[in-house]
TrEMBL record:
Membrane-spanning parts: 17-36, 63-86
Domain of life: Bacteria
Span of domain RDD: 18-99
Location within or outside the cell: Membrane
Protein name: RDD family membrane protein YckC
InterPro entries given in the database record: RDD
Keyword Metal-binding assigned: no
Main location (coarse class): membrane
Amino acid sequence: MTGNFSIDWRNGATWEVIYILYLVITPVLWSGYVIGKRICKIKLKRTDGDDVTLSNTLLREVVGFHLVGIVTLGVSLIVSVFMVIFREDKRAIHDLIGGTYVGKP
């Protein structure tokens, strides 16, 4: 609005794109792990038990988490919290869309 443009990677879309790429690519390369999941000794898996693919992580993170979250103005994030609390399989909306779940290796 002011005519100033910042490419400061810590603020704005640049950091968001880097973070989404990390969440999409790293689990594919590390067999379902990102740094935090590896520390907690849990991993992302497909519902059929195989390792996640690029299409699983794209659907899970980009469509299921970010796009649906934006379209629903954040309501889907609140619904996901209740899904994890009350569902027996502990899968949230983004897990259902991506065909994944988080569990022990």
